[in-house]
Amino acid sequence: MAFFIVFSCMLVLILLLTWGKMNAFIAFLIVSILTGLLLGIPADKISTSLQKGIGDTLGGLLIIIILGAMLGKLVAESGAARQIANALMHVFGPRYVQWALLIAGFIIGIPLYYGVGFVLMVPLIFSVVYQYKLPAVYIGLPTLAALSVTHGFLPPHPSPTALVAQFHANMGLTLIYGLAVAIPTLVIAGPFFARYLKHIPSTPASLFQVNEVNETVLPGKSNSFITALLPVFLLIITAVLPYVFTGAGTSFKCWLAFAGDAPVVMLFSLLVATFSLGILQHKAVKEIMRIYADAVKDVAMILLIIGGAGALKQVLADSGVSLQIAAAMQSWHIPLLVLGWLTAAIIRGCVGSATIAGITAAGMIAPLMLQGQVNPNLMVLSVGAGSLMFSHVNDAGFWMFKEYFNLSIKHALLSWSVMETIVGVVGLLGVLVLDKIV
């Protein structure tokens, strides 16, 4: 009976999000209350479960996601993102322009959230398309694949960051493993797959043609690269150092753990960016703080969605049904990494949101982590890969791609949806290979 209740409540959640077009946070709260009542949690205890779930889920994520949003917003508005793209275009030249945009999308996609990166890169893609008279989908899809891969695999993006917390993984190691999986994935889903898309008709509107900007107001290229990638460098370095200085004293290890803590890394990176991309570029402190305030508005709903998913997770945990689901899933004889991927993929196909798919799947899979010997860092990537699976008409990213590139639904499915599916499948294969190695 408990399984039927959980299945029915998940169906209600999907219907509220898709058919009902309801705000995801409100939908999560409604379904959490309904689930709690049907599973026998006393009515006066449900509110406590909701508050605990939201608090526990956001407690370790709020600082990272907010600071990451501020850094990404400054990278975009200071012109650093454009400098990164221009530098790569200059190095690679017209012949390898697709690879230049791919690498630009990957680097820019690390500090920027998916929607911001998408809107930022699309005008650049179309400017290249106009300049060199190249097929828009063939040139643009690899770049968007890079944005998708960073969104699903790499902290400090909301979904992988939340999964790191839920699975008690290590942020630095997850980032290292994520890069190892992300690079071959985006090459296959990007330039390799795009070779078959040269003949897809696309006539992007002329409004996306980019006017030239005064290059003197942009930050330097080295400054742009280093500042945008500083969190990545610091997380990787602090994750590797403990294995280098194995005989170090307790005090050194204590300070290293502090320096490698993700909120500390993000705060330090933001302070550096405030100076290098803000004050050093003659921006007033008031203007920089405005950018940061706008960044918080950009991610407010993402935070609420993650909190709502945490509330549902807590209700399932307090009712005891999570352990029942975990016990039942163990009898399926499916490797846990594959099961996490499959759960996220099914929810993604139904709901459309990669973030919701990843967080919801984590709540169902997390109890199994206590009973199975699985690397939590790889589980983050497995669920992340599943959350990127087949994107179709219920996903906002699908419609952004279709409308920006002026495609028919058929051609959007054949290009965008297939690309996202390749990302999900190749990502899983990469995780399984890593599982054999590490």
Word description of this protein:
This protein has 438 residues and is mainly alpha-helical. The chain has one domain. The protein has 20 helices and no strands. α4 (62-77) packs antiparallel against α14 (285-319) and α5 packs across α11 (221-244). The radius of gyration is 22 Å and the shape is globular. The relative contact order is 0.15. One of its GO terms (molecular function) is gluconate transmembrane transporter activity.
Give a quick rundown of the structure:
The protein is mostly helical and 438 residues long. It contains 20 helices and no strands.
DSSP E strands, number: 0
Given the helix and strand composition, which structural class is it? mainly alpha
Please provide the ordered H/E string of secondary-structure elements: HHHHHHHHHHHHHHHHHHHH
Radius of gyration: 22 Å
Count of folded domains:
1
What topology does this entry show?
Blueprint lengths: L1 H17 L5 H15 L4 H17 L2 H16 L2 H13 L4 H13 L4 H19 L3 H18 L4 H9 L4 H24 L26 H24 L5 H10 L2 H17 L6 H35 L1 H10 L5 H16 L2 H16 L6 H12 L8 H9 L4 H29 L1
Helix pairs in contact: 1-2, 2-3, 2-14, 3-14, 4-13, 4-14, 5-6, 5-11, 6-7, 6-8, 7-8, 8-10, 8-20, 9-17, 9-18, 10-11, 10-18, 10-20, 11-13, 14-17, 15-17, 16-17, 16-18, 16-20, 17-18, 18-20
Summarize this structure as a short list of keywords or feature phrases.
single chain; mainly alpha; 77% helix; globular
